[in-house]
Amino acid sequence: MQITVDVPEKVLAESQPSEIADRIKLYAALMMFQAGELSAGLASQLAGVDRYAFLAECKKHGIPAVSYDPEELAADLQAASGAAGG
Known about the structure:
The structure is a single chain. The mean pLDDT is 89. The longest helix has 18 residues, at 17-34. α2 runs antiparallel to α3 and α3 crosses α4. The chain is built from five helices and no strands. It is an all-alpha fold.
């Protein structure tokens, strides 16, 4: 599917249209991943990069690759410590 976006000419002044398109796709993928709307796999497809490159971009932009709900993390840690203890 193709989506058309109008971009002001001033934005293109120092970049090629293909560079701007790639950045828009990457930033959209990063934000949708961060919002929980896309998995890492789908976000990497949207961005047009492999999963490792996408995860590197997440790190570069301070976006956690894994997000745990605090209660879910506490439950997992408790379950893990219970299993280790015996």
